[in-house]
Automatic annotation (TrEMBL):
Coiled-coil ranges (or none): none
Protein name: UDP-N-acetylglucosamine 1-carboxyvinyltransferase
Domain Enolpyruvate transferase: 6-404
GO molecular function, one term: UDP-N-acetylglucosamine 1-carboxyvinyltransferase activity
Species of provenance: Desulfonema ishimotonii
BP-aspect Gene Ontology terms: cell division; cell wall organization; peptidoglycan biosynthetic process; regulation of cell shape; UDP-N-acetylgalactosamine biosynthetic process
Localisation per UniProt entry: Cytoplasm
Amino acid sequence: MDKIIVEGGHSLRGDVKISGAKNAALPILASALLSDGWSTYHNVPGLKDIESIRELLAHLCADVESDGNTVRINASRLCETEAPYDLVRKMRASILVLGPLLARLGKARVSLPGGCAIGARPINLHLKGLARLGASIELKHGYVEARADRLIGDDFYFDVPTVTGTENLMMAAVLAEGTTVLRNVAREPEIIALADVLNRMGADVQGAGTSVLTISGVPELKPAEVSIIPDRIEAGTFMVASALTGGDITLTDCEPDHLRAVINKLRQTGAQVETNGKTVRVKGPDEICSVDLKTLPYPGFPTDMQAQFMVLMSVANGMSVISETIFENRFIHVSELRRLGADIRISDNVAVVKGVPLLSGAPVMATDLRASASLILAGLVARRQTEISRVYHLDRGYEAIEKKFSGLGAVIERVR
């Protein structure tokens, strides 16, 4: 099993290109199931989760071709309706094939994805929404079994905004008969990106980026050629790295408008943040100021940046309060940060972080994707070496992260 070893104390400088967004690519690749013919997707990141969704689509009889960061998919021969446990267990986002399969073939049997390290993340709202559109839903032997001769548009309210739930219902509704109105939906940029792709395919999706989606069903969709939007969480991670190390990093091929909450918080810490078109430049402050933050659905501060920002607060001047409102177990990285010398106290969903002058390198273990990134960030400012194990989490969501950090002046290597 791979490890990453980081030697701290080096200021990061230079340019880094931001990869395509995993959380946008996964539903967009799943949307290829809705049409016949070859769809082409550019700027697809080279990640384990992308490999997993490609493998699942191939299992469903879609033709899948890859060439670097371009993926081509043809679902003309779509015939399999079961997403088995052995494939779904690798990645929770596999549930995104449920809506397209039901809309296209009238039935789907998809393994329940189960829990994960950062919380249960149930799919009950996916199932309630599909039932509202006329699907019969049964849970049998760990599988969701859904059937519908033809989905019928209806009005559905999400009790809480859910990104994958919104995406699943959106993809199901585009081929439903009549009009579907989805209320209290997620507003993330990835939702807008999926809606844009569906509309290019001939769908009629209105309201993406607001809390209400109106979807007028169409008889069929056509293939499309699109480019995946930049990964705002990868971008935010490198922005925090610059502030953390007193560095000067310019991010290219990113989307500053997707990063407003992160940019605002970084400026409050004393970092200088300049935006220009598709680039963001971050200069680290001489002294990091402590700030409070609360994770919220977009456009609030993203839960996927909470662990990285906690590292920044660990060496800030003063005390900060971090409130996690999205996932119930998203402080599991705290025990590893404490091993590096961070002063963090937890009470329910609130972390109180008292800044310390310096962290100290130690062996640590990654617990999930964003926690893995936070441990690398901590290693960048820790004395001596930090050895991070279980870094397979990183490969699910960060494309060649150690190479990108190395190109900025970090002393970092992967040991196989």
